[in-house]
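Field reference: sequence -> structure
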Amino acid sequence: MLPELLTAMPLTLGILFVAMIAGYFLALITTVFRVRRIPILSQLADVYVSYARSVPVVLQLFVAFYGMPLLAGLVGVEDFFSSNIAAMIGLSFYHGGYLSEVMRPAFLAVERGQHDAADSLGYSFFQKMKRIVGPQAVHFALPGYGNAIIYLIHNVALVMYIGAADVMATAHVIMEHDYNQYQFGTYMVLAVIYSLMCLAAWLIIRFFEKRHARYNSKSAARTRLTPSV
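Structure field:
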């Protein structure tokens, strides 16, 4: 069964990577709105994060699958949407909202003096994020970001419920062809595949954590600012 399961891996990884990248930028934009408390936009961002965290992921996928074509129909492009596109959109919105709750505490964890020092030097918000606060916030965000990626890998298995032919859906097709004789063995193979994906994600995040720790130790004096008296 393994060769058949591996034929579905490109789609599974494609959905995963699109949701990972799109969710990251959604989380970044949402976090900026929430941190800066921009009127109306910050309230909308709070509602979005609450939706992403409160609604079950499988329900978010159904909302994307049935809701996006309705919105696309308003501009006449409803035929563009498929179960794969809906899976990417649904998981991107989920991952963006969840990841925003990782980025925002990481931003707030940076000492207030660092913000004040950057403001006293006349840095804009984006300059402050790029040069001062951002590098320090990454240290706090990396562990939570690793957990968010692992949760995303887990939830990719739910896209089969909206018709996406991922690894999980392919496994069910295989079991049906075998008259459900080898269910335990099939699910154990799936467990190994998802465990290897999570292990790879953990190793990558762990690598960046160690690298960032070494970077911080070398550039602490250059990165951290002390306001002049």
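Note: The two ends are 70 Å apart (CA to CA).
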